[in-house]
Amino acid sequence: MPGSPQRTTTVLFAIIVVFLTLSLVLYPKEGFEAGIAGLKLFWDVVFPSLLPFFILSEIMLGVGVVHALGILLEPLMRPLFSVPGVGAFALSMGLAAGYPMDAVITAKFRKSKMCSRVEGERLLAFTNTADPYFLLGAVAVGMFRNAGIGMLLLIAHYIGAFLVGILFKLYGRGTQEKAEAAPPVIRGNLFTRAYQELLRARQEDGRPISQLLGDAVNDSIKTLLMICGFIIFFAVIIKVLTLSGIIPLLALPVMALFKLIGIDVSLVQPFLAGIFEIDIGAAQAAATDAVLIQQLIVVSFIVAWSGLSVHAQIASVLTGTDIRFSPYLVARVLHGIFAAIATVVLYNWGVGQTIATVSAPVAPSTLAVAAAEPTTAARWLASLYALKNWFLLIGGITLFSVALYLSRRMKIVVFKTRMNNK
């Protein structure tokens, strides 16, 4: 017999589901159009951007690259964030592909027993970030029509994530359990240990390359179809809640809070929309007539919070693991607060001086002039992209040299072992 709290939750959830269903029946045309918009967002943006990263992450796990990275980066990730070295892989893939890539990788780590439950919760707390292309392209250029805004939001967003990671280092210390498959103790040559771990993980996986590729594509498509369903569902929910008057009702206490802290009340509606879905909320905030810094504060919080749509995707990805969802939610609130504060500090420190104050979307003709005269931040970003090929070339040569050295070193060790046995 379920307890009283469980009965209350069940009844409340049933009422909400019935209400949403009736609302959708009353507004079928609007719900259909919202669903089409959500599907278009997934097909045009999410699917092509995330699929390559999902497939590559599966392959890197199967080949053993992630295990080798765990050995190499253990001395960095453990002191900073109290997570295994493999956490650097989740962090880097999360930075490159955005959410929910980090959750997918963290869940795989936990299922593979490469981290403990507490370590997985810590990892998920600070690796849940937006990708640079979303902030620099979709938000800055697409919504605000200003490239300089993207640099400010990007720096503030990652500062907030880093602070959450440092804070969560203290989380679960008294009750932390050891990982079932703790990373090996690093002794001697770090690169040799990483090479040995790469070979060990590949041998343990055992799948042929053809099967590994097929499984990677199959699992990635399944995960993306789940994400597609959540995007469409929440696009419809936001539309229905707005038409039924629920969101305007929720705006009353938020409006009082915004007046108290001195933020334009025109940002209340975008803020509430962003609580549900990040893209809709950020676009609405950029379209208001509020002061630029207040727009940026709200957008920073929305992007760091990431929206209930992303939260639902994360919760679904974590199914089958013992990683708890509540620490993730606390981390998102903290990330939103830290990112908003960092936005104010960076703006007042002069980062905002490179940003032209834009209170309304810029006309196409104005955009053409702006494109001819890029901002300081835009020129700096372009220089980073110009250096990208050099970094890739030097990194490739370095990796090849290290692999060649380790390969010869291992051959010498094997040869000496055989000679001693004789």
Automatic annotation (TrEMBL):
UniProtKB keywords: Membrane, Transmembrane, Transmembrane helix
Transmembrane segments: 12-29, 41-69, 81-102, 123-143, 149-168, 224-250, 290-308, 328-347, 384-406
Record-linked InterPro entries: Spore_IM_YlbJ (IPR014226)
Record-given protein name: Sporulation integral membrane protein YlbJ
Record organism: Effusibacillus lacus
Organismal lineage: Bacteria, Bacillati, Bacillota, Bacilli, Bacillales
